[in-house]
Amino acid sequence: MPQFRQVLVTGGAGYVGSNLVPKLLSGGYAVTVLDLYLYGREVFPGFHGHRNLREIQGDIRDIGLVQRALEGAEAVIHLACISNDPSFELDPALGKSINFDAFRPLLVAAKKAGVRRFINASSSSVYGVKKEADVTEELSFEPITDYGKYKAASEGVLAEERAPGFVTASVRPASIMGYAPRQRLDLTVNIFTAQAVALGKLTVHGGAQERPNLHIDDMSDLYLLLLEAPAEKIDGQAFNVNAGNETVLGIARRVAAALGRDIPIEVTDTKDLRSYRTSGEKLRRVLGFAPRKTIEDAARELAQAMAQGLVPDALTNERYYNVRRMKSVNLV
Ligand SMILES: NC(=O)c1ccc[n+]([C@@H]2O[C@H](COP(=O)([O-])OP(=O)(O)OC[C@H]3O[C@@H](n4cnc5c(N)ncnc54)[C@H](O)[C@@H]3O)[C@@H](O)[C@H]2O)c1
Fold it and tell me: Is the pTM of this model over 0.90?
């Protein structure tokens, strides 16, 4: 029996949520999803209408709606977000209003509603570009984008709102990879896989930049673990999570090899200096959590899903690309 039965997942209809929410339901949780459904309604195949699933389409900036979504909630997993560097930069004021300004009111409302555990999705981007070989949780925040800056600032707000009986933790995930019903194809491993399958070749911009990676199944397993972990192990803590660090060119080579074909890799110049690397050691030490899946697993599974027609129009449908969708929905 889970220690918290009712869980609110903000942004639960996104990429991570579309993998996590079915797992929570299968694990016996009752789940409320509060999401704008920016990427479509069909994100929980086989689970829409589930007796333990309440779906609320709306904005986390609408505090009345947030309060309604929180009714009965014992735990919150907070994923709602303008969730990558480039889509944030399209409209920085919009990004700030969702990723930062809405955060404290959500925390205050959660405490008032009797929520006892709050798990916050932060990001590896809080660290910026580090010289240290081991980027551990103690290192300072030096974000180089507004997305990273507001993830970092939100962790500060979370620390301020932490209170006895209101257990808080942040996760700083790597770039996530793999198939999910709400697919993202704007993340490194997924981009390369889609290119390999759809075009038969890969284009790498730069290549020396590093990216930590994490399979989406491991991501959602960690959220479940954080719901059940003893409070004293996680309260007030932040955890990096990754299945390893790899250069972008290294990722391209591994994806090409995993797909088992002779796929040419073209390397071009880039102005994108973002290079991230993290250590997942604390998570192993404190919670005994080690990701199980690899870049190769993610590439093969996504390629298989594409072959089965589960990711139609991979290169052209804006649903898979956050920036393209944010441009066309004109959210204010
Ligand atoms: N995917 C990654 O590689 C990655 C890496 C590190 C951290 N994260 C974090 O994990 C979380 C989930 O990421 P994801 O990849 O699933 O992103 P996503 O963009 O697929 O999902 C975010 C969801 O939030 C919803 N949303 C956006 N603004 C909203 C608002 N104002 N009110 C209600 N809902 C809103 C969107 O409709 C979407 O369904 C995010 O916080 C992200 O920053 C993701």
Answer: yes
DSSP 98: I
Rounded to the nearest angstrom, the distance between the alpha carbon of 82 and the centre of ligand 1 is 6
Counting ligand 1 atoms within 8 A of each CB, the residue from 15, 18, 68, 214 with the most, and so the one to mutate, is 15
For residue 56, the CA-to-ligand 1 centroid distance in Å is 16
Residues in the ligand 1 pocket, defined by CB under 6 Å: 11, 13-17, 34-39, 59-61, 79-83, 98, 121, 123, 173, 175-176, 184, 187, 322
Give me 136's structure tokens: 């551990």
pLDDT at 36: 97
pLDDT digits (tens, 9 = 90+) for 96-121: 999 999 999 999 999 999 999 999 99
Give residue limits of the domains in the chain: 6-329
* CATH superfamily, region 6-329: NAD(P)-binding Rossmann-like Domain (3.40.50.720)
Among 248, 247, 281, 5, which residue's Cα sits nearest to residue 117?
A: 5
